[in-house]
Amino acid sequence: MRIVSRQGGRLFWAACLCLQLVACGAMAETSAQISQQELITRIEAGTAPLILDVRTPEEYEAGHIPGAINIHFREIGERLHEIPQDVPIVVYCERSIRANIATRTLREAGVDSLLHLEGDISLWRKHDLPLEHDSSSSSTSEVPTEFSELVKSLDQRWIVSAAEAKRLIEQGATLLDTRKLALTRLQNSVYADWRQFSPQAVADRGKLLEQEDLLTQQIQEMGISRQMPVVVFANPPKGWGEDGRIVWMLRTLGHSQVVMVDGGVEALVDAGVPVQSGQSHPPKRGDFVVERNSTWEIQRDQLQAELGQDKLVVIDTREAREFAGKTPYGEQRGGHIPGAINLYFKEFLGQDGQLLPLDIIQAKLDEAKITPDTQVVVYCTGGIRSGWLAAVLVTLGYDVKNYAGSMWEWSAAPADSYPLEML
User: Fold this and answer.
1) Cβ atoms within 10 A of the Cβ of 15, count?
2) Does the predicted model carry a pTM greater than 0.85?
3) CB 115, CB 51: distance < 8 Å
4) DSSP alpha helices (H): ranges in 13-69?
5) Strand partners, 379
6) Residue 289, class by beta-carbon neighbours within 10 Å (0-12 exposed, 13-18 middle, 19+ buried)?
7) Per 3-state DSSP, what percentage of the chain is helix, strand, and coil (rounded to 5)?
8) Positions marked active-site
9) Count of CB atoms within 10 A of residue 166's CB?
10) DSSP 130-165
């Protein structure tokens, strides 16, 4: 996705904010839109319609459009009594997907006077329009005062543009470089290898270590702290999705502000992030402590038990030859998990290493019958490529879990209990 042009430095998803088609189902309707300028004019004149923020309470508390009320999009149906049906309603989220689902729910309930805020709150922030904050929230009071609105938005965003990453780095974010072989390093970057956080046993090497004290020690040694964002980058055209794996890992271990950079190292250099000159120094030890969050991971036996369920889509993010049965990376058996579909992770990247435009990504997901109501499980050989796709899908608002054990673990288990299909 060309989130940031080489010259323009546009913010993440700005090129795609006009997309109105809901990712859910086959809904063909789109909402009428209200422009950012029209809404702020009406707010200032005291004639604003009802403004409905359908993001999470945490996102709302971190900053919302003045006067907006907050009802999470998945709670619309049970909280219809809180929404007047005889007044115009402006609906927004971060990047339109949740707002479109909320709009569909409201329409089905008979609410007709609906407007979708053009560009949602991401464009509102880009234009530096006013925001309100819930000052009574303990979560916002813990955020250091020098953090920008960008930092506060990262709870639900796993990908940022190079320009946004540069701002985070300038504010003190920890910078992780997942490239193993690199002639140059970016200033103050720390090398991060996913392997150091995984067991050495062949069948388990895609999984995360179970020893939380060891994980905490390793992460602290990289300079990672709880209240400081972490920016992760790679070389997407030549990589394996290592940046997405590290983002998925740190999120799963409890850090809520970890992002990868769209376009990777080249985009960062183009954005003006300086290259390291001279010898680098070890980072100051961080204070992050592991507190696991199982939201985005699934274990082998849980996946086995859920295979074949409605609303479950299993995505094999490997190459077509691997999906068909080749075993080039040490799998003990070839094939793919029964019922899985094949979406190679690099199908979502352009030649420049940036994500494809949102409408193209959406078309791929629609063709695969993947909607925000779908439970998605992604896997690959060892949870690396699938970790990257998980980061993309989470950012787009999908319910996704990464099976980190992936084929290394599944293929090592008894074939009668953990079968594989071949093409």
Assistant:
1) 18
2) no
3) no
4) 36-45, 57-62
5) 316
6) middle
7) 35, 15, 50
8) 93
9) 21
10) --B--TT-HHHHTS-TT--HHHHTGGG--EE-HHHH
Phi, psi (deg, nearest 5) at residue 116: -105, 125
Amino acid at residue number 407? M
Q: Decide if pLDDT at 6 tops 50.
A: no
3-state secondary structure of 52: strand
Arithmetic mean of pLDDT, 333-348:
97
CA dist 311 and 374 (Å) reads 5
CA distance 173 to 17: 27
The pLDDT tens digits for 211-252 are 999 999 999 999 999 889 999 999 999 999 999 999 999 999
Question: CA 70 to CA 58: how far, in whole Å?
Answer: 10
Q: Which two tokens stand for residue 392?
A: 């993309």
Please give the Cα distance from 95 to 55 (Å, whole number): 10
The partner residues of 33 in beta bridges, in order of sequence, read: 116
Sole residue written with tokens 């479109």: 100
- Per DSSP, the residues of 254-283 read T-S-EEEETTHHHHHHHHTPPBP-S---PP
